[in-house]
Amino acid sequence: MTFAAGMNCGYTVVSGWLAIAAQPCRTFPGHAPSHIRCMNMITTRLRLSLIAFLLFGLTIPASAQQAASPVDDQGRVVQFRRDIAPIFASRCLECHNAKNAKNDFRIDTPDSIVDYIEAGDSGASSLMTEYLLSEDPDMLMPPASHKGPLSPAELALVRVWIDEGADWPEGYVVRAAGVAAPLDASGEVSSGDLATEPASLPARLWAFQGYFHPATVHFPIALLLVGGLFVVVGLKYPVLGDHVALSCLFIGTASSIVASAMGWAFAVQRGYGSWNRVDMDSEIFWHRWSAIIVTVLAIVISFVALAALSKGSERLRKVWKIGLLGLAAMVGAVGHQGGEMTYGALHYQQAFELIFGKAEAAVEAVVEPLIPAEPAVEPAEPQV
Predict the structure, then answer these.
(1) Residues pairing with 101 in the sheet
(2) Phi/psi at 299 (5° precision)
């Protein structure tokens, strides 16, 4: 509140009280009012008006100034709960949470992010330089397919937060529930929140079929494993023949082609990067190329099996059976890796620990205790 506004408000209050105070002097027309009574009443009203003016003009501006303070008690302009947590929750948490931590990176707790931040120096923080501000679409986070990149306002907040020390309140956990998308200066949803969709119809169809990869990837895994199993069983029971193993090989090869194509499209949509991204340290890099190798080998072995059938060659028959056994082992390994990427590196270890007497440790690892978030408003100290 400005001084002029306060004076105007005080003038309005005093004028109102004077109008009320003068009413007793006009109450009895035709009779002379009692001057003493009127003066006493006016004096009392004026005193009350001055007291109200002082309280309204001094107390409210002080409290308003305190509420509108741009910094916290540590002198930081950007506050994690108010400014940074909503950005992390709406823009990063979908792919980097406790259940789905892509590349073993989580954004809900500070344990992972501290390795990518140099507190006090955003220019030396790889979170900013290598991901949030990257010009490489395969490194940009969040990717265009996931409403990226961040808007300039959001990037500025993260930069200032890092430069001010990257304060993360102890015990605070970023959660998605009830967190609204950050707004720009006009009060509208920032442009960074708008998803970038493929422009052409073929590109949209390619992206669409990628979402069915989780449903189709189990077919080649199961079929090639069952085909390898029947090759082994057929060694003891030749009467079973090669029909089941051949059927599993042919159908498994066809489904592996489909699943691989869907996997490549889905990887781009999920922010893992396009096909030409080379990162030897990335688990997704080895997973996707292992799947391609399995698919190519399956195609080659299928042609060998067809040649064995058409020529009646016993040597080629042994070749495709040995090849199918190798495919079963390889597809099992690729599937195992995919399971660890989806459910965590300790997923299978925890399952065996439940069986072999280490259930307590496994349950503790599976069910991570949630650390309650600190209250947003500290309770006021009792006034004496």
Answers:
(1) 96
(2) -65, -45
Q: Which helix (H) or strand (E) holds 260?
A: helix 243-269
What are the backbone angles phi and psi of residue 100, rounded to the nearest 5°? -135, 80
pLDDT in tens, 142-172: 887 777 788 888 899 999 999 988 888 887 8
Angstrom distances, CA of residue 361 to CA of 106, 211, 341, 356: 22, 35, 21, 11
At 97, list the tokens: 């949470």
Tokens of 366: 């599976």
- Six-digit token string for 156: 């500025």
Separation between Cα atoms, residue 342 and residue 325, nearest integer Å:
26
Residue 149, preceding peptide bond in cis (omega within 30° of 0): yes
Which of 132-136, 284-288, 310-314 bottoms out in mean pLDDT, i.e. has the lowest? 284-288
CA gap 294, 253 in Å, rounded: 9
Q: Return all residues near 103 (Cβ < 8 A) that are at least 6 apart.
A: 282, 283, 284
Rounded to an integer, what distance in angstroms lies between the CA atom of residue 261 and that of residue 291?
A: 10
Amino acid at 258: V
pTM for the whole thing?
0.48
Distance CA 152, CA 380 (A): 36
DSSP helix, strand, coil percent of the chain (3-state; round to 5) = 65, 0, 35
At residue 69, the pLDDT reads 60
Tell me how far apart the alpha carbons of residues 151 and 198 are, in angstroms, rounded to a whole number: 20
Q: Count of alpha carbons within 13 Å of 176, Cβ hemisphere only?
A: 10
HSE-CB at 115 with a 13 A cutoff on CA atoms is 7
pLDDT tens digits along 71-108: 777 778 888 888 888 888 888 877 887 777 777 788 88
Q: What would the two tokens of residue 99 be?
A: 């259940």
CA of residue 297 relative to chain centroid, distance = 37
